[in-house]
Write a structure and sequence with these properties.
The protein is an alpha+beta fold and 171 residues long. The chain is built from 7 helices and 4 strands; from the N terminus they run H-H-H-H-E-E-E-E-H-H-H.
C-alpha cells in the first residue's frame, strides 16, 4: 500500500495541471489513475509472468544463487546452519524461523545467498521460502478488484435533497 501512496503522490506532483484542479474534480483524476494502474498491473501479471513468483523477485534470487558458490554450509540440525563465506565471514541462519544473521531475509522476505545455500543443502525448493506477498497468485488477487467507471455528473438524475450552497464570506 505504501508503494501505491508514493506513486500516487509522485503522479500528482509531476502533473502541474492536475494540481490546479478544484478539490471536487481531484478525486475523479485519482479514481481514473487507479483504474489504469490496476488494469496495467493485472495485464502484466497475466501476460508476462509464468512462474510461481514475481519476475523481479526471481531475478534477485537468481543473482543470490550465483553467489552461493562462495558459501559453505555447516548443518547444526535440520533447520539451523552456519554459513561460512569465502572472505572468512560467517552467518547463522534458521530455516524454521526464517531468519539469518545478515537480516536481509527477515526484512525483505527474499532469501539471501546464505539462506539459499542452506536451502540447496536440504535440496528444498527456494520458492517455498519466499514471502507469500511475492507469489504471483497473491499479487493477482491484490489487483483483481476493479474500480467501476462513473457517468458524467451532467447525466446524473435529480435528487430530493436541497443542493449545497457555497459558504458566505465574512469574518
Amino acid at each position: 500500500m505504501n508503494e501505491l501512496n508514493e506513486s500516487a503522490h509522485q503522479w500528482l506532483m509531476d502533473k502541474p495541471a492536475k494540481q490546479e484542479k478544484p478539490i471536487l474534480t481531484m478525486p475523479e483524476w485519482i479514481r481514473e489513475w487507479m483504474m489504469v494502474r490496476f488494469q496495467r498491473h493485472m495485464n502484466i501479471s497475466n501476460l508476462k509472468w509464468n512462474g510461481r513468483i514475481c519476475s523481479r523477485i526471481k531475478k534477485i534470487i537468481d543473482k543470490h544463487v550465483d553467489n552461493v558458490i562462495y558459501c559453505i554450509p555447516i548443518n547444526g540440525d535440520n533447520t539451523q546452519y552456519q554459513i561460512n563465506y569465502r572472505d572468512g565471514s560467517q552467518y547463522t541462519m534458521n530455516l524454521g524461523e526464517i531468519s539469518c544473521s545478515c537480516k536481509l531475509w527477515g526484512l525483505s522476505g527474499i532469501p539471501c545467498k546464505h539462506d539459499i545455500c542452506a536451502i540447496n543443502h536440504q535440496r528444498a525448493d527456494i520458492e517455498d521460502y519466499v514471502h507469500e506477498s511475492y507469489i504471483v497468485e497473491v499479487y493477482r488477487k491484490s489487483y483483481a478488484h476493479t474500480i467501476k467507471g462513473i457517468n458524467d455528473y451532467a447525466i446524473w438524475g435529480e435528487t430530493a435533497f436541497i443542493p449545497l450552497l457555497s459558504p458566505t464570506m465574512g469574518r
